Amino acid sequence: MGTMILKVLSLRDEADGIRAFELADPAGGELPAFTAGDHIDVHTGTGLVRQYSLCNGPLDRRAYVIAVKREPMSRGGSHWMHDHLRQGDLVTIGGPRNSFPLEGDAESALLIGAGIGLTPVLSMARTLAHTGRTYTLHCFSRSAAHTPFREELSAADKGGQIFLHEGLEIDRQKSLLRDILAEPGKRALYMCGPMPFMEQVEQIAALAGWPTGSIRSENFGAAETAKCGDRHIEVVLASSGRTIIVPADSSIARTLIEAGVNIEVSCEQGLCGSCLTRVLEGTPEHRDTFLTEAEKADGTLILPCVSRARTESLVLDR
């Protein structure tokens, strides 16, 4: 799906440092359909493109609702959204598209969201409630002031069980997660949040016997793009046979672009999948959060904006 221009219908502060934006068709028409777990690309005034999950239900097509957390280390995306975007302004967006789909093969769903990671699972909760499927939603945050959509979550009768866990010490959080994940049953687990929280949930779920295929996740945070000890990589373009040397301190995607290669990039954080490229030879070292574990193990795809190579060279379908 291409880009479209939407109007900021409204904006409101949902929590400390988190602002919600309603984006609508300037002419008042219905927006393209979306599904739970979808995100949109927002083209900011800084030239950056950032991905934000839709948090309203898919039946609500009068607007796309996103929540944006002001990130202290932001390169400009979240700061621009908070400081410059106002009601009535026009903004270019791309999407919606989905890398975190809600599957329909489980009897019920366990939803876990931490901080701003609540946004996609909130859309899932709304979808499940509408379709009559049972769910339990656990929301973790630093405090009540940091819980987005708290007033709505606290309201009665949302079609499922909703629990707010605010300001927990780390040991209490681990203990609670062990209780929450104790009985996998025939449920599917959907979780979203910062990487350390996600790793904690995955470890506890594995010990509790959750099948790998029943766990779906989306990480809110940039992938690691550089590590101490990274070396240069030889990248061969299959279409021309051209070899390009990627320095240790540069991404494959950025180096290819600087060399005149046409490669689409958007987030440059390993989140959106825009730069997805087929690997014809060599073994990639995956550092993205877009590919599934099965796709990473297969080794035939790479997100060159963040991932590198385990072998000395890669032959890419470019």
UniProtKB/TrEMBL annotation:
Ranges of residues in domain 2Fe-2S ferredoxin-type: 231-318
Transmembrane segments: none
CDD domains given in the database record: fer2, PDR_like
Record keywords: 2Fe-2S, Flavoprotein, Iron, Iron-sulfur, Metal-binding, Oxidoreductase
GO molecular function: 2 iron, 2 sulfur cluster binding; metal ion binding; oxidoreductase activity
Pfam families cross-referenced by the UniProt entry: Fer2
Domain FAD-binding FR-type: 1-103
PANTHER family found in the cross-reference section: CARNITINE MONOOXYGENASE REDUCTASE SUBUNIT, NADH OXIDOREDUCTASE HCR
Name this polypeptide is given: Oxidoreductase
Organism this protein belongs to: Mesorhizobium waimense
Phylogenetic placement of the source organism: Bacteria, Pseudomonadati, Pseudomonadota, Alphaproteobacteria, Hyphomicrobiales
